[in-house]
Amino acid sequence: MNKKETAEIKKNFSDKSGFFIMERVLTAFVDAEKNVRYHNVSSCLTMPVEEHDVYDETLKKVLNTNVGKAFVEYEFPNEAYDEGQPQNILYTLLTSELKDDIACEDFLNHIANNIAYTGPFAVITAYCTYTIRKKDKNDEFADGEDEIYRYILTAICPVNTSKDGFVFDSVGNEITKKVNTELIISKAPSDGFLYPVFSNRSSDINHVMYYTKNIKSPNVSVVENVLGCTFVMSAESEKNSFQSILKNVVGDDLDYTLIKTVNEKIQEVVEDNKDDTDRVVIDNMKLKDILVDVGLPEERVNMVEPVYEKVCGTAPLTAANLVETKTVLTSPGITVNIKPSAADKVRTSVVDGRRCLLIDIDDPTIEINGLPVTL
Q: I need a labelling partner for 229 at 20 to 30 A (CA). Which of 111, 205, 243, 298 fits?
């Protein structure tokens, strides 16, 4: 799924859409020892509006349009289709529409037995349908061509006791220390997934979308053990790998101008392919092309393939994860943040035998600690 497809599902994740129905929701509580202590299936069509709204708010967070970072697509390996394996469990749950209690129990036990999670958590899974309006060659809605996209959306939410502190006891007319006995289910999921994916405006049962709240440290066990897929590097890991490759290939030629230019080239790749359904990637060959464009010597460019293979193997890197939205220059005691629009105003040079960072200031009036000064 790309950003456009994710945005379509998220936009229509509402009763006001007219094309969407959240029919049933499965809720469960799993204790710290990974025991499913409770589970229940409710009809969303008859539940109180206030309760329905909480489910909407929680589940919608899983549909994160930061595709490739917080919301990543995975393909099921062949073994995942066997009976009792992840894709088979999800597909059985999907086709049951949450009406089969055994399918629900198998799904919940599979999560509880395979997830690495500290403390208790709740599982919230909704069975939803979305009517896909098909268009003809004139870009008009075609009669009788609609397709129903049926999917399950799961949110895994941490459970904590309510915050410690003091409360006012209206019966005793006094302020007393609060006793923490309530277990509060967070409305901010730590993990989640969408199955099947919505690709090319149709259902694809061979892929699943995984959501993580923590982009820098996703829960690998959800991807590999619960969903049965091969984990790809997180956005932070991809960026670190790319920086390692660049540092080892470029060596002493690594300077401000080269780093800025490479970042701009990768940004161009992302922009030129922003409408692509497939993930836009940077592999060893694309990186070689970029380094040739920025004028890196041939002997350095020829180092890309062996260095890339040592760091990443054959896995391509997600281009969007490599783009820096700002340039940060650091030196002991000094940090300078530079927005892309001002990147050309900064340069390095040697002045009177000293290495210096030079910043062009068009307006002689600047602020220091919020106070205006004139240079």
A: 243
d(CA 191, CA 154) in angstroms, rounded, equals 8
Distance CA 114, CA 121 (A): 13
Q: How far apart are CA 299 and CA 189, in angstroms?
A: 48
pTM above 0.70, yes or no: yes
Cα–Cα distance for residue pair 343/261, rounded to 1 Å: 10
Query: CA quadruple 316, 318, 319, 323: dihedral positive or negative?
Result: negative
Position 164 scores a pLDDT of 66
**Amino acid identity, residue 164?**
D
- Return the closest-CA partner of residue 124 out of 209, 74, 204, 186: 186
- Amino acid 308: pLDDT: 92
d(CA 12, CA 21): 9
| Spans of the chain, pLDDT less than 50 | none
List Cβ neighbours of 114 (8 Å cut-off, separation of 6 or more): 221, 225, 226
pLDDT for res 144: 62
CA-only gyration radius of the chain, Å:
26
Q: What is the pLDDT of residue 161?
A: 65
d(CA 237, CA 234): 5
SS3 167: strand
